[in-house]
Amino acid sequence: MSNRTLPDWIRKTIPDPSAVRRLEGMMRTASLNTVCESARCPNLGECWSHKTATFMILGDTCTRNCGFCAIKVGKPPAADPEEPARVAEAAREMGLRHVVVTSVTRDDMPDQGAGQFADTIEALRQAIPGVIVEVLTPDFQGKRWLIKVVTDARPEIFNHNIETVERLSPEVRPQARYHRSLEVLQDARRLGEGIYTKSGIMLGLGETRDEVLTALHDLRQAGVDAVTIGQYLRPTAHHLPVREYVRPEAFAEYKRLGEAMGFLFVASGPFVRSSHNAIEFSRKVMADRLAAMEATPSPAEAP
């Protein structure tokens, strides 16, 4: 099946264009990037119309060239020291309670961007008291001291995606390593006491059911608390082809089996993405804290 003949379950409704334009204008005014735009996420309209977005720090140019990703590759600009404050202010203006921060991979930097993550977490804490912060990080080449820089800033959730099953990892993520990603997740859990860990996997790249279940088992063995499972959609003709459009009932089965393995949270469906509806995890495992925040005016609403 080609990308041009999508099945009925791979279709999105048209979002509110005015809401999308408002948030897009805010991001451009603040000179900020979102992974929603850079990665051509199919949920952009839905999330933006609900005033949610995943902030992408450290520019819009990646030092790695993964076969599935639409983010541009090249020589990135220098890190902007004012960026953390701008992210925090934008999140405050949006009235966010759960903020997701990700980045391009910056193998060119001495700390690979770990310090910018930490500074952004701190800026969010100052701008939005009680905010729940989720980071979606690169692998930092498996260097524990860089992982510790991030975990020492105390994000509530440390997310790092394995993206695919072990067999396909060299093709899908040629500059990453499957087991290194598992070790990153293990280290984040050990170094950040009380931090939840999360990971994600794409389906439709040619994996088998048994391989998916093995990947889920590997994540549980690494102590991962939450997992997202979604359909890979080819962003351009230059990226890896879609081998299969996985049916909704298969996603439902993976959700059931993942929950049976002991994950605290499993989001599984064709349009599920790592940070799509990320606040649902907070509602399940940090319900009291989130409820307390939602019972008070947001910083944007306060007099």
Gist?
This protein is of the alpha/beta class. The protein has helices at 17-29, 35-38, 44-49, 83-94, 114-127, 144-151, 169-172, 178-191, 209-221, 248-261, 279-285, 287-294, and strands at residues 33-34, 54-57, 61-62, 72-73, 98-103, 132-136, 157-159, 196-203, 226-231, 265-268.
Major sheet details:
8 strands, mixed
Order of helices and strands: HEHHEEEHEHEHEHHEHEHEHH
What is the CATH superfamily? Answer: Aldolase class I
Shape: globular
Notable features of this structure?
single chain, 303 residues, alpha/beta, TIM Barrel, eight-stranded mixed β-sheet, two-stranded parallel ribbon, 39% helix, globular
Verbal overview:
The protein is α/β, with parallel strands linked by helices. It has a single domain (about 15-295), classed as Aldolase class I (TIM Barrel, Alpha-Beta Barrel). Helices cover about 40% and strands about 15% of the residues. The protein has helices spanning about 15-30, 35-40, 45-50, 85-95, 115-125, 145-150, 170, 180-190, 210-220, 250-260, 280-285, 285-295; strands at about 35, 55, 60, 70-75, 100-105, 130-135, 155-160, 195-205, 225-230, 265-270. It has an eight-stranded mixed beta sheet, with helices on both faces. It has a two-stranded parallel ribbon with strand order 3-4. α5 (about 115-125) links the parallel β5 and β6 (about 130-135). α4 (about 85-95) packs parallel to α5 (about 115-125), α5 (about 115-125) packs parallel to α6 (about 145-150) and α11 packs across α12 (about 285-295). The longest helix has 14 residues, at about 115-125. It is globular.
